[in-house]
Amino acid sequence: MQTRYNKAFRDLTSDYSKNFMLILAIAIGVFGIGSILGGYGVIKREMTDNYMSTVPASATIEMEESLTKSLVDSVRQFPGIKEAERHATLVARMKVGEKWYPLLLFVVDDFKNKKTNKPFFVSGEHEPATGAMLVERTAFVVMQANEGDELVIKTPNGHPQKVKLSGTVHDPGLAPAWQEQTGFGYITLATLHQLGEAQGFDQLRILVSEQPLSRQHITERAQAVGEWLKQSNHSIHEIQVPPPGKHPHQSQMSAVMSIFIVFSFLILILGSILVATSMATLMVKQVRQIGVMKTIGASSTQITTLYITMIVILCVVALLIAIPLSRLAASLFYNQIAVLLNIEIRNNSIPYWVPLLQIAAGIIIPLAAAAFPVIRGSKISVRNALDNHGVSQKHFDENSWAVKFSKLSVFSETFRLSVRNVFRQRSRLTMTLGLLAAGGAMFMTAMNVSEAWNKNLKRIYVQRLYDLEIKLNNPIHADSIIEKIKSIKGVKNVEGCNQASTSVSKSNSVEVTNTYPDKGHGSFTMQALPVPTRQLNLTLAEGKWLNNSKANDVVLNQNARGSFKIGDGISLSLDGKPTVWTITGFTEDVGAPATAYVSLEVFSRLTNTSGQAKVLRVSYFDRSKENAIRKNREIEKLLEKEKISVSATIPVWLLQNAIAAHMKVLINSLMAMAILMAIVGTLGLMSTMSMNILERTREIGVMRAIGATPGKIRNLVVWEGLLIGALSFFIAFAFALVLSTFLGRFIGNMAFRTPLSLTISVVALIVWILLIVIGSYVATLYPARRANKITTREALAYE
Amino acid sequence: MSHEQNKNLIELSQVTKSFPLASGTFQALKEVTVNIQKGKLVAITGKSGSGKSTLLNVIAGIDKPTHGSVLINGVHVEKLPESALATWRGKNIGVVFQFFQLLPTLTILENVMLPMDFCNSYPKKDRKERALSLLNLVNIKEQADKLPSALSGGQQQRAAIARALANDPPIIIADEPTGNLDSQTATSIFELFAALTKAGKTVIIVTHEKDFSGYFEDSISIADGVVVNEVVNA
Ligand SMILES: Nc1ncnc2c1ncn2[C@@H]1O[C@H](COP(=O)(O)OP(=O)(O)OP(=O)(O)O)[C@@H](O)[C@H]1O
Ligand SMILES: [Mg+2]
Questions:
Q1: Which residues of A touch B104 (CB under 8 A)?
Q2: Which of B82, B90, B149 sits opposite A297 (nearest CB)?
Q3: What is the per-residue pLDDT for A163?
């Protein structure tokens, strides 16, 4: 080996702590990119693959009547239609312990030969016998049952009956059941009849043969089929076209992913700052050696090559450590997300562009970061390098505010010196502060935003003043039952309302909605409320709440708002007929699908249901979950006794759980980011602080020589660390405010169409301050001890 | 003095070096004209701040003169570009520093081999042998595989001299090479320099130490950037 490379190699192996920090800095950046983008790459691919392999129906046409097999066969022959299938979906209830939960029943025409929205077989029976049910794998938790157990279920028109859970399927098109707090079951039509329902298959699922991902084309084909059915005297309720090729949780996933991408980009920047700082420090130490080498004949090119070799070696070591670890982290990450999305990772290979990007980032960025100090170092004139004044003190002058500030007599000598040391090297200080501020800002932002989510979630109790919502199968004259419920002890208020599914009518043809097969995602509901209502206190974003019980006013929530303006007229379909309303306000609801709020009186007139209610909302004095569970049971018993046919009871606490579960992906990933940031930030602080001290071994030797005790020196150095930490904190806080506002707005809008209000997490503030204090303390303690250990003679002998 | 041009290895004529200062420019060398012959041991003396180091730096191409010319071995040093200067210096000038300046992570032997590596001056296989013989010359062959930090000041300076000789340069310059050494060690270093001139090297030394004036054939005295006394023995 050439002698000069001996130097490169020896330099790399001689000072472990410094080079370790450098490698760590690069490795963290590379690790961050790899774990996030690797996870992202796999999830994105698998989510689409999983969903698409179920062959999701292009559209579902809901009929008012049952479909015959021959009708389905003729639809299959329709131009532009590849496949057609009969189906039915029904909301029933299931008894878990003493509580009733919603149960979504999918009635399948032909289990063996299913054409659309095919679930994957997992275990047990492939085709449920009459009286048995296949269960989506994530629903067992909600049912608190296992395959082979029996479950009591009740359809709207039937009596509670035991059904055997005879098999398990996996349906990637459904969100995890525990997220929806709902059961998912698959039965045959015979079982449905046995459960007490007379209905047949009333849904027609179709697959288009061309342009399967064009919503416009699908809508056009589905409407053509609808028109044809209408002409053959079949009546159609609505057409559902969920966003083609998109998993029901795609938009939430996009929000999560965009956070990841933003954060991995920031980590990359952070890593680069760390590398740049470290390189700059390394080069300061090397300047004199560069001068010596140039004096004995080294050219600038030779010196540049030498240092580039050193850096590349460091980078390669960092990559060797970081890439395998990041793959491990990526797998933890995508497995976690896969559970939350109810998808199965079938191919866990990380896309090839991820390691390529890591290699590029892990070599190019450190080289670029080092380029400036290396080039400056090798361009520096021999004289400058050898100058005894040294390069490092250039920026210090006695009129600077740091000196003036530190001269204030309240400070001790040690503290004064610390202040001046902090400001001695402006460019390094800027880098260290930048690093810490960026880390801190991101940490606090992640915590702030996740707290904003939680706060948003708690608003559910503020917006919904009721504790139990009872959905009835048929509208009833509810006055007497309302009085009976009111007489139960602890009940504060009861209101009867109504609701119907709706869609924005466009002239002619059949209504088209965005609804997914689970009937929840993408649906649009009209809620008819007494004016004024005592059960809702929605957050108004604009305009006025309903205040005239006789007016055709409508208030839309953020999911229904679209591009409408206050005062616009809107035509909403009710039972297939268009009705005309005037928009008076917009609300921001937590956890509601697209909803239009209207006056019950007007609604009843339009639907000929005057004096009737289809939904009962009950509020309690004591809103705790425990009390709600108890009271809910009393009310259910009463309804049973009164022979009122209930389709679903939805306690607000259950709703909150469901929404919380939806947000879990987001919160978890934000917390993961926060932790990663905290680690990167603390390590950055530690590495720059310790390098800062290690570099001054000689100076410390001088101070020792003129009588400074080790204790004094430790104080000096620790103060310096704390000072930098404190400065960075204020910058970080300011940045966090700005970042949190934007991120909150962005994520809120993306996932739930409502911005998150700026929330400052006190926990984040405290944790970050502690991290900074402990981090600077620990980071400075070791090098200070080391500096103290070196004898004065040694420290002064050489640099 | 300048009549026998072919005998002069180094010719400085009208060399001025000024440094920009906040209060104007400061002239460290003022129209200095000096000739140094081959094979001599030359002392540069003068009070602190008089311009000794600056003169040496100008000769070594470390400082560029503001005016005037520096002709060494027929080469106009002040006209060489920075890139060519490094290689030229590596081959023609051996520099010995006051604080030795050995690279701390290389062994003594490697430190001595380094200039040959940078200037690619000897075949690779011969470098080690040459470095060892140089270390032998300066009497520290036993220390060859130690790191600089394990050596005494005098030993380090010997190693630095061996390094300065690595590319067999005709000129050795040393700025207060014994400033950090005791007088006994200093004596042995001066003897080493004297021996080098016997072997045909030209050695220029900045020194304060009057005790060693006996070693020098020629001397140049500077005061305030001006040559005040030049003693040249024929
Ligand atoms: N880079 C510089 N910028 C400004 N002035 C300089 C610079 N280098 C040297 N000087 C000034 O030039 C003058 C000569 O400096 P030089 O280093 O040559 O002195 P010296 O004779 O070697 O002194 P000493 O014996 O103390 O080493 C001094 O007054 C010094 O202040
Ligand atoms: Mg000097």
A1: 14, 798-799
A2: B90
A3: 94
Which pTM value belongs to this model?
Answer: 0.70
Q: Is B72 inside a domain boundary?
A: no
In this structure, which residue's CA is closest to atom 25 in ligand 1? Answer: B48
Give tens-digit pLDDT for A7-58: 777 777 776 666 777 787 778 778 878 888 888 889 888 888 888 888 988 8
For residue B17, is it within any domain?
no
Spatial CA neighbour of A382 closest among A311, A301, A298, A284: A298
Cα separation of A90 and A197, whole Å? 10
- Which residue has its alpha carbon closest to ligand 1 atom 1? B19
CB-CB contact of A585 with A540 (8 Å): yes
Instruction: Give the CATH number of the domain where residue B102 resides.
Output: 3.40.50.300
pLDDT tens sequence across A623-652: 888 888 888 888 888 888 888 877 777 888
Q: What is the residue whose two structure tokens read 């604009």?
A: A542
The pLDDT tens digits for A96-139 are: 887 788 899 999 999 988 888 899 999 999 999 999 999 999 99
The domain limits of chain A are 1-54+259-388, 59-240, 391-461+662-799, 468-622
Q: How many angstroms separate the CA of residue A380 from the nearest CA in chain B? A: 11
Chain B, 142 to 201: residues with Cβ < 8 Å from chain A are: 148-149, 163-164, 166-167
Residue B27 placed within a domain: no
**Residue of A6, A301, A302 lying closest to B106 (CB–CB):** A6
Total domains, chain B: 1
pLDDT in tens, chain B (234 residues): 444 445 788 898 899 998 887 778 889 899 999 988 888 888 898 888 888 888 988 888 888 899 999 999 888 988 888 778 878 888 888 888 877 788 888 889 988 988 888 888 889 889 899 999 999 988 888 988 888 888 888 889 889 989 988 888 999 988 888 877 778 888 888 888 888 888 888 999 888 777 677 778 888 889 898 888 777 775
Q: In terms of DSSP bridges, do strands A577-588 and A236-240 run parallel, antiparallel, or are they unpaired?
A: unpaired
Residue B186 included in any domain: yes
Q: How many CB atoms are closer than 10 A to CB A166?
A: 20
Residue A192 has pLDDT above 90, yes or no: yes
What do you get for the CA distance between the two ends of chain B, in Å? Answer: 10
Residue burial B34-59, b: 16+ Cβ < 10 Å; e: rest: bbbbbbbbbbbbbeeebbbbbbbbbb
Q: Which residues of B touch A2 (CB under 8 A)?
A: 117, 124
- Judging contacts by C-beta atoms under 8 Å, the chain A residues touching residue B117 are 2-4
The encoded tokens of residue A349 equal 């290979």
| Helical spans, DSSP H, in B77-227 | 82-92, 108-119, 124-137, 153-164, 183-198
SS3 A522: coil
B48 in ligand 1 pocket by Cβ < 6 Å? yes
Give φ, ψ of B19 to 5 degrees. Answer: -110, 135
Between the CA of B225 and the centroid of ligand 1 the distance, in Å, is: 10
- Report the residue from A4, A383, A794 with minimal CB separation from B62: A383
Tens digits of residue pLDDT in A693-752: 766 766 777 777 666 777 777 777 778 778 888 888 888 899 899 888 888 887 777 666
In which domain, by residue range, is B114 found? 39-53+80-231
> Closest residue (by CA) to atom 17 of ligand 1?
B53
Query: What residues are neighbours of ligand 2 (ion), with CB under 5 Å?
Result: B 53
Q: In whole angstroms, what is the distance from residue A372 CA to residue A383 CA?
A: 20
**Considering only CA atoms, which residue is closest to atom 11 of ligand 1?**
B28
DSSP assignments along A601-648, one per residue: HHHHHHHT-TTEEEEEEEEESS--HHHHHHHHHHHHHHHHHTT--EEE
Of residues A376, A396, A369, A372, the one with CA closest to residue A291: A376
* Interface predicted TM-score (ipTM): 0.82
